[in-house]
Amino acid sequence: MEIFISPARRRMVENNPLYFPFGGKQSRNILRDFKGSMSKQIQVLFLNCQDLKNVLCTVASKINISDFWHIHLNHSCPVSLARNILFLKVISSDCFNVENVKDLSYLWDLWYNFQWPKSTLDRFTADIKELLETFERNNLCSEFCFSMEGYQLDELLSIWKGWLLALTSSLTQSSKSDKILKERTQFLTGTGEEHIMSNFIMMKFPGFKRRVYTGDLDELVSLRETAMDIEEYPASLKRKLVQETKHYFESGNCSLGKIVERSALNPTLLEPDTLCWRIDGSSCPFDSYLPLSLNELETTNSVECVATRYCQTALKELVKNYKKFKNNVQIHFRWTEDLKICHTGTNLKFDVIDCSTLADDVGLANVILSGRELLNTHSPDALLITVTSDWSKTSLTVAKYVEESLCAPISMVPTIYGLRLADAIELGSAILQERENPPTTINWHPVPQFENVSLVVSPSLERCMKNLEKMCYFIENEEDKMPLDKYCLDKYLTPLTLDFVASRLAEKAGKQEGDRRMKFFQSKLPRQFSLAQKTLNDWAERRPVSLVTSAQFLSPDLTRLFNENKTFKSPNLRILLVPSLQYVNKMRQIHRTVQSSQLSEKQKEDELQNYFPLNWAKKMSDVHYIDNLFLNYMKNPDGSFNSVYAAFLLPRDHGLNNTHCGVLIDLVTGLSLMFLGFVKDFRQVVFENPNFTTKRFSPPPSDVILKEPCMKAVNCQESEDDYTVQISIQTKEDPKDLSISTDQQLPCEAGHRVTLCLTQPEGMKPFTMCFPHAFLAGCIEATLRRSDRSIRLVLKKALREPWPCHFNEKPKLNVDQLSVWKEPNPDDPVSRIMIHISGTMDVKSIRSSWESAYDLSKFSNLPPLRTVRIATSSIFVNSESGKEFFNVATIHDQQNPLFSIRVHLPVKVTPLGSPMIVITVLDHHHAKKLIANGNLQAKQFQEDYQRIFNRRRNRQPFSLWTTSEDATLLLRYVLRINAAKMKPSLWQEENVPLGKFSPFLASFISPLYLDNQYQENGEEVKAEKIKINLFKKEHNIPLCDPSVCARCMRRSAKLKRCSRCKAVKYCTVDCQKADWSTHKACCVVPNTENETMDKIKELVDLMMNSTTFEVFVGTDLQSARDQQIKWPNPYCKFESCLPTPSKTKEFLFARPIPISSNVNLQKERHVKLVMQWCRGWTHPQQRQPAKGKAHPSPETSTCKRTFEGHGDHYIKRVMQ
């Protein structure tokens, strides 16, 4: 057995294997963001391949027939591998015609449907037999390559044979098929499955009880309805889509045409050994085809199965494109643990690696460290793709998630991990995130490596390594209370992860192999990790290590726990080596406590909780933790578990044979899951060069002693903001005339390489250094010290300047070919652009915007990113109202603009679907610098400025502000990085002088969205709303806006009223639930008709006899209260209150005010008056003739009045 010790923490998930044959995510072309050349034979790796849809989407993007692609599909699940080989075999066959309805139906049945007709059964049987014959004869087609071991091929053949056997024995029999269908429904809903917990867990967590969970398919349908985003679709179409989704979850099928008689069940969707349904409950065939474009859906009433028809059409197009280019694509199948292939699986280097959601399973740091081993780091365009759906569980922003997962600020990531972020994630999301917890794609590129630089441990680097050490050497904290719903704690990193990072940095520091870790990074860990640390150091220094293995049968409790409880998972495992005597005594105490008849059940629970410590090292002496381990769970022929095989590394002279035993524990709870045996009984094999770790550390070349004078970098200290390099000048003469040059290429202001030259002594060669993080070429500080013949060089990192790679990226965005923005529904009260703008603001930003609009001093307290978001949003809002020119200045110096901006309408649509405005920007500070350096003529500059920013009709530019220098630099960074992405428009090419020495930019702006619009918790939202309402009351601003969600206060065209009171609106059900604690106090159920009419009569009489009353204006009572208008005379004209009644949805709410001052006005009820009146109408009892006109007669000036109570379900019309 080949053993691989993974850097990721081992988890127990074998007893609950969930397959994802449908992918579960929207399919995408992974080469979409690849900017490299397609003219060569590019190598692509799908590291965590589950579904073939991404492969087909990628091949479908192929344009040039002369290109040749090698696509490697690495599977960790053998069932997914067997399915994908079958699919490609089917669609690659010359006999398969996707235009044929029968062929397409067969492929759809094979891929998605659970119940098969006889035609599908017959074709499937023939295809499997053909595959078996091909593999057994080793007559594999040249179209596919298989990189698998012999035992893997045998297991693959056994899966195909098992499918055929299942079809002949179980899946074609009606009674057994019905039973499997019932079990599938129970699995999806959670019904019929008893959660059996072991006595140990029951005692450790009294909250765990034996009970039966129940569920409802409607919940799954509701989740899919939300994912499909069909809220605004026509009601009839929406009803069809929901019904179609529900039918799939009920039957497992989604097909066109008539329902045929079932002949068999799809064996590829079942667990091979047990024939159990183990597909993730939320998976649906429609997921990978989302979004369902309304324009492409067949919406006629006669068409059924709308979603299936749409998805089959999309699949047909993908298969057609694959068959078109299949001769130019070589598919390689692999079956290896995802991280193992990165370290020991292949010597190939890949241009693109798609890791899918692997980071959510093994940790982002492990994925980056492992994926980089296979990435073609010599190509700056090589791409590593990671996707995360869990980032919002731990962080507020994606940038914070990256920094917390990698234990380093973004500016230190290139040095520590050797990769850079492809996008400026610190600016927010590139697309509008309209759902809670949205998945996010993070792309990575290689960076230039250190050259002629000896890295040392700086305070910043040491701080990063210390943070990483805390995550890798996880130390339990007994004070942390773990809620039951957080049982799966995300602890992915291990000591081996830290060792990988230390190895990389030591190599860059020029350390010899024996000094790799101890001299580069000194760590002081608790004693329980001393053995693990010694193991890593022994292997680093090429001293022998022992491979320790143990095989144990499962205890009865564990057998029942693993085999009968299908939802229990031990997410993070750790092996403890504890003193045998102490462990045996503890087990005896537990046994006596359990068997005691003198203790009550409560007393037993209290006693037993003390026997299972969360931190074993505090309760026992001489305990050793092993976090890097290999586990293999052995099964019986029926698929049940029977034993566990464990393997880990120890130093050869560990000295634990006669004193210690092994225990497998759950890292989260400290619970002892299994006794592994005594160390003296373990099998121990000494390895000199084992194959279960990563490739060896490469020592740097030995220094060559040169007689000629030269320069050498003695050390380099890196911080978050700069590099500080100490350079020694090896000469006896005095050095003179230092000059510095860089690889900067204008208009970029940054570079990676710096060259130092000295004119004396003669023969001194130039000294060039390279750095992974780009530095500012114009901010280099160099000090030549003749006394000790050294140079101190300080390079400021380009934190607010695009890198050279950004300016060199191709192809550029052609803005002239982009579509013009069109509102999907012009009648919506809120434009779609405003919804996109609201996606850039959280509740704090909304409050800051209101405060700064009335008090500019409040603006200075805003963070830089919030300032930039407000500036870009203001350009969008004001350009719609006709503003063309904008000036940006600081609030401290408002007279001298920093930037002048001219917008070029119309609004365009980016390839990602966001609105964008093409702009021409003048950087005034850069213009002054160019004029001072003689690179720009002042007269020509003024002429260009007047011509480009010609303010027609004496229009004054709209003023925008920045709060600080950091905010100004951030805005400049946004404008410059957008300019690097696009090709200037035709007008800009003809009218704007662009070039190396130009202060003008052809750029664009697009909303800088929040990574998650629902990142605030309920308490934060409530507190901010109180502050906003207080501020509005102080400045007489309407409190409520009918187009704003009552909780998150964001604009949306999809607001829905509270179904109980109809008084408030929310954008999502989540917002409504979160606001219920506040809203329930004023959410009133509508009254009955008789009660309503009695109140109406009472209030009407009171109003007619009152000397004064209040009138509220709004679409409902909640918003009407925000716009109070008091009438001292109840018979004044109402024409100034509202627009023309026929063109508004607003109403009048009247509340009489009694003369008596001791009446509690809060107890007065409101009356809603819906009036249809002539212009200038007054009360019918006291009509005042207009000036110069006669008194109108009652017959010609009638008024229809509608009275309503607080609840508006019952309406009574009264004619007067």
TrEMBL record:
**Cross-referenced InterPro entries:** DUF4470, TF_DEAF-1, Znf_MYND
- Outline the extent of the MYND-type domain: 1045-1083
Q: What's a BP term from Gene Ontology annotated to this protein?
A: regulation of transcription by RNA polymerase II
UniProt region (Disordered), positions on chain: 1180-1203
Keyword Transcription listed? The answer is yes
Coiled-coil annotation reads: none
A GO molecular function term, named singly, is: zinc ion binding
Keywords, ordered alphabetically: DNA-binding, Metal-binding, Nucleus, Transcription, Transcription regulation, Zinc, Zinc-finger
Gene3D superfamilies membership = 6.10.140.2220
Q: Could you tell me the superkingdom of the organism this chain comes from?
A: Eukaryota
User: A single GO CC term, please?
Assistant: nucleus
For this entry, the protein name equals MYND-type domain-containing protein
